[in-house]
Design brief:
This protein is mainly alpha-helical. It contains two helices and no strands.
């Protein structure tokens, strides 16, 4: 487990800008929802990839 550092209360300038942006635009656009769903799908495919038994190939490589 990592080392826990004491909380200092410091907030960086970029964090302030992002917080202000989030308060200005509280709802996500349709494009943002699409991106979130796309990346959630990619993460699920990455995290739950099926393993291939030795000697077998994926269908994409059958013609090579």
């Amino acid at each position: 487990m990592g080392i826990l550092l004491p909380a200092t209360g410091f907030v960086s300038d970029i964090d302030k800008v992002l917080k202000n942006f989030d308060q200005t635009y509280p709802t996500l656009s349709a494009a943002q929802h699409t991106e979130i769903n796309k990346h959630a799908r990619l993460a699920a495919l990455r995290d739950h990839a099926e393993t291939i038994e030795e000697g077998k190939t994926l269908p994409i490589w059958e013609k090579f």
